[in-house]
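re: that chain from earlier
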Amino acid sequence: MPQTIPINDPRFTWRGMTSAEVANGSVKPWRIPHKEKALYDMNLVERAVMPTGIRLVFRTNSTTITGNCDSVDERSNIDLVVNGRLAGSVETVNETSFQFENLGSETKDIELWMPQFGSIRIDNLTFDDSAETSATSESTAPKWITYGSSITHCRTADSPTKTWPAIVARTRGYDLTCLGFGGQCHLDPMIARLIRDREADLISLCVGINIYGAGSLNERTFAPGIMGFIQIVREKHPTTPIALISPIYSPGRETALNPVGFTLEQVRKEVKRAGETLQAHGDDNITYINGLDVFDSDNAHLLPDDLHPNNEGYGIMASNLLGLLPRI
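^ sequence. v structure.
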């Protein structure tokens, strides 16, 4: 008889998760402390329950892995990584279970990459009747936190390992925490506190596109907002490398004034100015990355809505950022 193990069993480890909402043995992974969600804007909360970048890891020699989960009508795939290599991807929309088969009977390191879009609650995993399942070794990989908008959240990537943060993390061997929140990158102080309080060897902040789109900060408040956000992070990460990244190319926005009188070109200048001001103030561990060096007008055809890259576009972002992000 196949053996079913509750998802809150200590043999299973969640990585890239901020908190776990546990109910009757099931787990819903969050990217903010879910018990404090009233302290966050509700639009951000709706994105924070989407587990982009979160992995469930363990070791097993089972030839089949089956999971039971809740049914959601809009949700990305779950990806299976075996011994560091992508081994499968399954759809989860309107499904109450997922399964990976023909995995071989050798003992292997398993990573289940959770959907980058849509929430998920998992009840248990089922294995072969004679399978042995154990906890994986504690990670010694460098810890990387990346914060940003929908362009970091990457809903339109084909699957969770195809987002640019996942590609960068897997290529460099980083332990990823992805804080990309579609439409909700507005330099919230609660997010600065969250980053401050997590272990990190590298931090990247992709800021500006949501602020431009919503007009949520202006010439008076934007650069000071960036600097204040970073200073909060610096309270517990005084020398951690921070990459400050301005918006990628977006046709129709480059020279168009938003409700507070910003163009996207001006937004980039303000992001750069904030970084240079912090450097002049003695912060030697700030790196500014121009978003146009990450994704420029030559790639405009990979922006189906003139804003969000498609799957190929996210691959280009990852390739360029691999050469631009500080190495640790």
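The chain is about 25% helix and 25% strand.
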